[in-house]
Amino acid sequence: MTETNALVLTEVRGRIGCITLNRARALNALSLEMVRELMAALLTWRDDPQVLAVALRGSNKEGVFGALCAGGDIRFLHQAGSTGNPQLEDFFTEEYALNHLIHHYPKPYIAFMDGIVMGGGMGISQGASARIVTERTKMAMPETAIGLFPDVGGGYFLSRCPGRAGEWLALTGDTIGAGDAIALNLADGFVPSGRLAEIWEGLATQAFTDGAAVQQWIDAQLGTAETHLSVHQTAIDRIFALPTVAAIVAALEAEGSNWALATVATLRKRSPLMLHVVLEQMRRARAMGLSDDLRMERDMVRHCFYLRPGQSETVEGIRALAVDKDHAPRWNPARIEDVQDADWQAFFASPWPAYAHPLAGLAD
Predict the structure, then answer these.
(1) Which residues belong to any copy of the Enoyl-CoA hydratase/isomerase domain (predicted)?
(2) DSSP type of residue 323
(3) At the top level of CATH, which class does the domain 8-356 belong to?
(4) pTM (2 d.p.)
(5) How far apart are CA 25 and CA 33, in angstroms?
(6) CA dihedral sign of residues 93, 94, 99, 104
């Protein structure tokens, strides 16, 4: 195993490549260094016939498990976006390439999605062949709260949720638990958190003959969990299918239920501009393969920082949440009703010709 002060711990146990995210104080938020270490390990094990499968877990301040990953390192994004640090570009290009590799990994990839699994944490787990949730799982793509959008392939995997749950999750950033994650095809099965260590050890000590045997064994460990979303699913499918953000907000206000009014209140706190961008992202991504979606998201994230110099919604959103912590972002435009079509449409014009795109080499 790598030294214990490393942010990513990797070792081969039995015939399993084991990864532990080891940045507990930051809820395992991904830095560029961590992205690179993950990519290096996965590429090495992909080509190593002794490694039959890969298992990923996080750590918390008390030990392993408890939190997978809270997302990307948003303090770095704020610093880099404010100062013109070119590593900002490297971070997103390499993170999205890592997400693509995980979705197309030729060996079983087992993600222990315990505790907080948000943003970039979803990016390194949604492509897994076994997505394991527990009673502690808190899953979300909360990017509209910081003036961003559900990236890391979020357009691809959220738009494929049943009905219009993808639009709901993408726009609101609401958090769901294990049962709803399974119901929405964002997880494969439930394991009580008390069994995680036993299963992790089982992966390392079982005498597996091939990757298929690993997958079969892990699938047999998975159970189900109670869903809480079904009571709202009909309303979600009807309202979040509407063509515009304004129409969605108006319909929620007309609905008048406690859930609908709470949802409106949430949307009113999000970046109005990015709500429009995200709705279009979901609609486009539903018809895209993963590679095209990641290329689109790479275009979008470039625009989040550079389309409006000095007026980045993302820099402002992170400032309000994580830097100054005043929780009073100054969104521009300030109201959903003030966003013009040209404002959000600009996010979908690629800054690169196709042959020069940073993710030109991705294929499905």
Answers:
(1) 16-348
(2) I
(3) alpha beta
(4) 0.97
(5) 16
(6) positive
Structure tokens given for 140:
């979300």
Proportion of the chain in helix, strand, coil states, percent, rounded to 5: 50, 10, 40
Closest CA to 23 of 54, 53, 84, 64: 64
**Mean pLDDT over residues 337-364, rounded?**
97
Placement of tokens 């830097």 in the chain: 323
Give the active site residues: 72, 120, 143, 151
Closest alpha carbon to 72 in 20, 23, 138, 132? 23
Q: Is the pLDDT of residue 3 over 80?
A: no
Residue whose pair of structure tokens reads 């912590």 in the numeric block: 325
Tens of pLDDT, residue by residue over 66-78, are 999 999 999 999 9
Write out pLDDT tens, residues 250-264: 999 999 999 999 999
Measure the CA dihedral 306/149/39/35, to 10°. 70
Q: CA–CA separation, 241 vs 238, rounded Å?
A: 6
**What are the residues whose beta carbons fall under 8 Å from the beta carbon of 49, sequence distance 6 or more?**
none
Distance in angstroms (rounded) separating the CA atoms of residues 281 and 151 = 10
